[in-house]
Amino acid sequence: MPKLSLLIQILLFVSTLTVCSLGFAEQTNIQKADKIFAIIDSGTIDNPEAYNLHLTQLESLISKGDTSRQLRLQRALCWSFNPYIKEQIPTALAFAKHVLTNPKLVNFPDHKLDLELCHTWFSEKHGNVEAALKGYNKIIEEAYARENLRLVADARNMRGFLRSYQGNFTQGLEDLLIAHALYQNLNLPAWAHSSLYEIATSYRRLGEHKNAIRYFKQVQNGHINKQNFDGANAISVSIAIAEEEQGNLEVAKTLFEESHDYWRNNKKELEQATVAVNIASTLIKLGEFTQAHQYLDEAEPFILSTDTAFYSFLHLFRAQAYLAESQLSQAHKSIAYARSAFSRVKNIRGLAQLQLVESQAFLKQKDWKQAYYALSEYMKLHIELDSKQLSSYTTEMRTRFNADQIEQENRHLIENQQLRELELAMLEQNELQQGIIIFLGGFIILIVSVFAYKQIQKNKLLSALALTDDLTQLPNRRYIYAKAQTYFEQAQRTESPLSVITFDIDYFKLINDKFGHEVGDHALKLLADTCREVLATQYKTARIGGEEFLVILPDTDLAQGYKIAQALVHSVRYGDFSQLPSGFSMTISAGVASLSTADSKLSLLLKKADQALYIAKTEGRNQARMG
Questions:
Q1: What does the angle CA 474 – CA 480 – CA 482 come to, to the nearest 5 degrees?
Q2: Exposure of 421 by Cβ count < 10 A (0-12 exposed, 13-18 middle, 19+ buried)?
Q3: How far apart are CA 424 and CA 358, in angstroms?
Q4: Does the annotation count 548 as an active-site position?
Q5: Quick one: pLDDT at residue 341?
Q6: What pTM, to 2 d.p., does this model score?
Q7: Catalytic pick from 124, 208, 547, 619?
Q8: What percent of the chain is predicted at pLDDT more than 70?
Q9: pLDDT tens-digit profile of 51-72?
Q10: Domain 477-626 sits in CATH 3.30.160.390
């Protein structure tokens, strides 16, 4: 028997050596692949040829059986398509759609989310702006739920850019500022640098030119320090646009001409064309219409209709020049091209400028009726833009006021993510050293397994604590407010009903004073159980303060919400309190409110529910009232 045991040990040892020798070669390839993925994720590759070369290397390094890295490669391939080449956009959409049918993605939700983000981004470039916004909203919500901060930052950065371009500066700036903070916390300087440019652009569109130029120069200095003169020159164009919008036309013209000469000398025709479009605007304001047409003629062969931003403004500037020269039929043709492009991406700012040009063209034709109509549309769009710009100042102040809170939440999520990454790295390391671990014995395997299990449990606990009330095990304030905002925006978009219920325990302080805080805590737990029984999983309930609770009722009108609130009041009043001390009783008061057209913000809807709750309290408690 001892001889047999010795034979088994020898066989195990030989097998271990074989496994190790085969594994080391595979391990080398895995390490090389992971380094390439890290480079791709860093955002430092700005050359398509270099990017494609990395993809080719990955294809040779990753084995067919390595499902996770194969899917990671598919993600990288999806982002490799060029959105500035018209034919590649539908190809990218088809590619992403095909990969998303892979059944293995069920076990890799982060890979699936990133592929959905890629599909959404190319949908935006294809002109499906509404679908893109819905996609970004969904991805951001799921990324937060999974605490995948990189995907949160990427999706909010893309959504912020789109919102800002459309003229929705309020939400655009908030998205971009949060994305920038996340990129910094995740130590992704290239992406933080990129998002800073979008923030500067949003400030420029908002009319905050001094702030915009200050941020642009920060970005430009970063490019110069890295000797990225192409990037620095591109920023010069943005500074020129800001100078033009401030009325510094000669300064803007000089900057544009320098940039145009730079791209021409470097033989980059597309970049040269984009500058030609921009300089035309300055020349028109200076009255140099012939030269403006020359630049636009130069740009037109390279600016495709898929590049909506430059295509729309190219035809807007054409229309302005034709108008100044009284070539009205040509002006109307350019207006039609520009309107189609601006409408496709819902660019309110561009449409407003276009309506003004059209009204002036009709005035020159003495078509008073059409001129009046075009001017009326201009005023509507201008009022909408003014409203969004005013609210943007409020957003910026609110975002800065909440900066510490955002930073703290981001730090907590990053710590969780780092724990998961550490756990994954340890598991992979254990897998690679499997032969050595077998040789050393089962005792070490047991220790590592226990440690990994504890790490997993710790991560789950941290994630749950971040969004759950510890006492009642209901969602907490942060979770329900984020969820409520999502339902609020969805209800506004789809014009569907949405109601909320706020309620609290009557005379809760007296309960604590009479029976003690332990009984009070038990009462809160019973109330949470009652909410689960009455509301099931159809509605979202959360504890938002001491004895205060909030219920979100999607697709529910005021009458239905009131019935649900009455059911809650009734269930609590006649609840089973036999586990509590003799003489204990408990009631609640509730306020119900439903979304109306006057509720432009979630806070207004919640305020109505609070007012209804106050009425229920003043009228005797133990009841529900509608707001």
A1: 145
A2: exposed
A3: 60
A4: no
A5: 86
A6: 0.50
A7: 547
A8: 83
A9: 889 889 989 999 988 999 999 9
A10: no
